[in-house]
Amino acid sequence: MENLPLSPLLSLIAGVAILIVPRLLNYIVAIYLIIIGLLGLFPGLAG
Predict the structure, then answer these.
(1) Against a cut of 0.90, is the pTM above it?
(2) Is 13 helix (H, G, I), strand (E, B) or coil?
(3) HSE of 44, CA atoms in CB hemisphere, 13 A
């Protein structure tokens, strides 16, 4: 994997997971928001 952008990859995986198990939507959105929030507060975590 050479420098794949993380956001589109996560979106693809989340979309497929939601199609398979729609109940996962709440968890996926919550985890996504937490990760984006942490990366926004602590930019050093992104690497």
Answers:
(1) no
(2) helix
(3) 0
Phi, psi of 21, rounded to the nearest 5 degrees: -130, 90
pLDDT digits (tens, 9 = 90+) for 10-42: 888 888 888 888 888 888 888 888 888 888 888
* DSSP for 21-47, written as a single string: -GGGHHHHHHHHHHHHHHHHH-GGGG-
The values of phi and psi at residue 4, to 5°, are -70, 135
> How many Cα atoms within 13 Å fall on the side-chain side of residue 30?
5
Q: Please tell me the predicted confidence (pLDDT) of residue 6.
A: 76
